[in-house]
């Protein structure tokens, strides 16, 4: 039998056959998966990618093969999962571009298509790794081109492509050492070979059944994953999970001894719907697969048994999983320094950079909408600030760096952020707080910026911190462990006693116009010491008003501002 | 700044540059990644793909309690599913760090700094 062209009908069958073949063999391909990351998901990924491609192809309203191939490539691109899925999508992207305007495919077209596919696949990678799906497609395509010179029979070309691919696959362990170590062929290459084999079989009429399309295991799993993803959000507390067991069963309809009812989807579904949520029921004539979150996995299993025997049962305790996830998240959150706080969207986001819970609360009480964790010795990156700006979902943003070292990052962030953003150049936390007093929610962004910048000079900022090594700075001989008082960036006092240093710092900051002294004590300082400082300051000048807040900031035992 | 591993014989220090190079190598190994980009693209005005010796400029390594947090800046190929390529970068980077350096990456943030349209 000789075939000189592939029509839309045949192309459609080829694609469906390939999708089925991959689906059937997904587990097998998974077992081969050792490269690039041995996570055993190549088969599933390729299968899901191709299923997406096949769906687009099936839905395409055209009878031109070129257009079908384009639809296939689009579907593959949209549904690409995993490395091999992405590569597969590139192969068919090249394939479809070459053949986009073809009504039917000749033997030469087919060979050209594969060659273009191989070429495109190679282009999208900086360092092609040989011994992978790339090698397989390249050698297959080359054989196809050679065969097309000799023959105009599509079957001959397709067969040549498949055989060469198979041979190339067998050689992959020689090219990629990690494969040889484990003693397997490349999983992605194997997947592609299955696709080509299915094409070949389909063209030769070896795939008989057309059958109704059924949601298959992989799709069901994807659906389950999607459901889980939704249900996880907003249910962070394990106790708040209403239905604690993720229950999955697979029932062979009508089999077994306990069958009491004929299968009826609606009846079956309705009972389960009352048992829990996140319900998914997929069935064909022989099998029904159920996924449900419930408090009564036993009832689900018993219900299933009334319709047939159990082929598979899986029950996970989601509360336990959630606890584990939360522990993990907490660790991660503690470790990741710059964390952004979630807030309801506002028109103008004011983003302050500060370290410590107390400071964050103080800033929020002043009208700051978002606090990015950071400050001295732990500057947030531009990205952190950009994330905070974009994450605020506001229309515009004002950033208070509260540290000179963060100006640059903040300015960069303002440039690349999605919404208009300005920086108020607050060098210290005190300045940042004073700047907030100049903020007017109804004013324009630029007006606010200048008003807030003006306020900066109205305040004197003092910081008390301890020296981490012996040094000489600003004419002071500073010993490790001693305290330093810094006023507007220069060291004014140094002393071994925290309280003395703090009082001296305040003294250095005061002048005739001083009215209000705000003291913010840090994480390592007790309220007692702060109160002592407060009374000491009040003794200096009884006209002064003092305020004491807990800032919880690291590094600085005291942050002082004088207005 | 470096990752310290204590053994009974002493300590092993792995500098951030080494980690950055491994991360860069892992990232560029990925299908769909055409190169690494500078993290300070805007300031440096470097739009180009970094050379191998400059990978560290496209990788930020932050020390954390039980591992590191990685930001990796990449340029990807147009026409690939970029989200998926990025996901692949994450898993490959994490995997390579663990196998090659024994360093745990608590997070791998992929920043797609550019997309390269390749001639067909």
Walkthrough of the structure:
The complex is a heterodimer of chains A (563) and B (120). Chain A is built from 21 helices and 18 strands. Chain A is an alpha+beta fold and 563 residues long. In chain A, the strands form five sheets. Chain A has a six-stranded mixed sheet, with helices on both faces. In chain A, helix 17 links the parallel strand 9 and strand 10. Chain A is elongated, with a radius of gyration of 34 Å. The termini of chain A are far apart. Chain B is of the alpha+beta class. Chain B has three helices and six strands, in the order ββαβαββαβ. Chains A and B meet through helix 5, helix 14 and helix 17 of A and strand 3, strand 4, strand 5, helix 3 and strand 6 of B.
Rg of chain A (CA only): 34 Å
User: Helix share of residues of chain B?
Assistant: 25-40%
Q: What class do helices, strands and sheet pairing of chain B give?
A: alpha+beta
What form of chain A results from the Cα inertia axes? elongated
Q: What's the arrangement of strands in the largest beta sheet of chain A?
A: 15-14-11-18-16-17
The total strand number of chain A stands at 18
Largest sheet features of chain B = 4 strands, mixed
Distance between the termini of chain B: 44 Å
Q: If you average the pLDDT of chain B, what whole number results?
A: 84
Helix segment tally of chain B: 3
Strand content of chain A: 15-25%
Helix percent of chain A reads: 40-55%
Euclidean distance between termini CA atoms of chain A: 96 Å
Number of strands of chain B: 6
Low-pLDDT regions of chain A: 208-215, 225-236, 336-344
Most extensive chain interface and residues per partner: A-B, 37 and 35 residues
List the main descriptive attributes of the protein structure presented here:
heterodimer; A: 563 residues; alpha+beta; four-stranded antiparallel sheet; elongated; B: 120 residues; four-stranded mixed sheet; 6 strands
